[in-house]
Amino acid sequence: MGEWGSKQFNTAKECYGKIIDLPFPIINPEADEADLMKLAEEYVKQILEFKEQNNITVHIMGEMTFTYMVVSRLKAIGIECIASTTIRDAEYSSDGKKISDFQFVRFRKY
Asked: In the chain, where are the structural domains located?
């Protein structure tokens, strides 16, 4: 289940079936578009390996430009992509740090 809460995991399993978790990469903020393009192509290649034996839907959330690159490539070849929607409950600790708690609501298609 990784970092997914039980409601999100169960909803995904009910709506989409078997779940294979491909960890989201750590994106270097200094990376340029060419670097991200290369990484996006690598991820799309990995995802396509799953497609050979499965009907897939890709849940993707994360760094905006990388996510856009991956989603646009997958959609162009007919692979459905979804995002999760959440309610964010933010509080501030006594030392001023922001603490956010996210409550899954639903999936939404890109």
From this structure: 6-20+30-109
Nearest Cα neighbor of 81 from 71, 67, 68 is 71
| Predicted TM-score (pTM) of this structure | 0.85
As a whole number of angstroms, the distance between CA 22 and CA 19 comes to 10
Cα separation, 106 vs 10, in Å, equals: 11
Token pair, residue 48, equals: 């396509």
For residue range 61-110, list pLDDT tens digits in order.
999 999 999 999 999 999 999 999 999 888 888 888 888 888 999 999 99
Query: If you write DSSP's letter for every residue of the chain in order, what string do you get?
Result: -TT--HHHHHHHHHHH-S----PPPPPPTT--HHHHHHHHHHHHHHHHHHHTTS--EEE--SSHHHHHHHHHHHHHTT-EEEEEEEEEEEEE-TTS-EEEEEEEEEEEE-
- Amino acid at position 40, single letter: A
The more confident residue out of 2 and 90 is 90
Partners of residue 87 on adjacent β-strands = 103
